[in-house]
């Protein structure tokens, strides 16, 4: 708690106290600050308030980054899984029966107890037994961490989930643009002009006017050319010169049949 106070110095104030006193103090301000009533249901258990005007995401990171390792205590509820990994414990062989009672496979190596394989000792949300707590303390293992967790974000009378702080600016802009597109689509479907749909409505109306103008031969400047293009499409065909591709003809070499002639080696037997 003191580390969190130091981290928040200059950017926020951490306030905690008894829940009854907090509720009583909040009740006295209901007449002038009625939106404080939304905070009453969350004042339960070990709660604290952080007041800040800085960036909420940065303040949240300062709070959750300060955690303290804590040993396992008998009867406590495990907030996470606890796994004892294979290792040499350095304990004397006389404590082998203690490991056997917990179902942990061991062997004697160089006069000390060695855990042969990994063991899932405690499961999440299960109660820590006395034997498990004693074993973890003997192995100098502090499996749990304790710190302050952000449960709610409060702003201008509304409570939000802390996951809202993970939304990036790019994601917010994307959702905002999607909402604008949906509003525009609904407005066009209902023929109800809005700021986001009036541009599309004007374009669609202009297209309808042009279609009626061409169909009724009641032309104006913008439709005269379109009408002429529909009636004389050949006049608007651009003459593109056909590029002649020079074909290179490779003359085929005629293979002359060479007759095999016997060369006179001067060894004729009939001379």
TrEMBL record:
One Gene Ontology molecular-function label: large ribosomal subunit rRNA binding
Name of this chain's protein: Large ribosomal subunit protein uL10
Family the UniProt entry places it in: Belongs to the universal ribosomal protein uL10 family.
Gene3D superfamilies registered for this protein in UniProt: 3.30.70.1730, 3.90.105.20
Superkingdom of the organism of origin: Eukaryota
SUPFAM superfamilies per UniProt: Ribosomal protein L10-like
GO biological process: cytoplasmic translation; ribosomal large subunit assembly
């Amino acid at each position: 708690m003191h580390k969190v106070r130091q981290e928040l110095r200059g950017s926020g104030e951490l306030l905690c106290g008894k829940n009854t006193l907090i509720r009583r103090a909040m009740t006295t301000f209901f007449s002038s600050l009625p939106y404080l009533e939304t905070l009453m249901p969350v004042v339960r258990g070990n709660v604290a308030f952080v007041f800040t005007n800085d960036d909420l995401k940065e303040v949240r990171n300062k709070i959750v980054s300060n955690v303290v390792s804590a040993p396992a205590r008998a009867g406590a509820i495990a907030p996470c899984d606890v796994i004892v990994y294979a290792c040499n414990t350095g304990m004397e062989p006389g404590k082998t029966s203690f490991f056997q009672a917990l179902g942990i496979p061991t062997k004697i190596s160089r006069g000390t107890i060695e855990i042969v394989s990994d063991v899932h000792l405690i499961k999440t949300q299960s109660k820590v037994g006395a034997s498990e707590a004693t074993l973890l303390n003997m192995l100098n293992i502090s499996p749990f961490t304790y710190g302050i967790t952000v449960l709610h974000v409060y702003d201008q009378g509304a409570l939000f989930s802390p996951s809202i702080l993970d939304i990036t600016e790019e994601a917010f802009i994307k959702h905002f643009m999607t909402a604008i597109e949906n509003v525009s689509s609904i407005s066009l479907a209902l023929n109800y002009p809005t700021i986001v749909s009036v541009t599309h409505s004007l374009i669609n109306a202009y297209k309808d006017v042009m279609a009626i103008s061409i169909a009724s031969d009641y032309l104006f400047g913008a439709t005269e050319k379109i009408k002429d293009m529909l009636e004389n499409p050949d006049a608007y065909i651009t003459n593109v010169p056909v590029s002649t591709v020079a074909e290179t003809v490779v003359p085929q070499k005629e293979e002359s049949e060479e007759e095999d002639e016997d060369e006179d080696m001067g060894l004729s037997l009939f001379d």
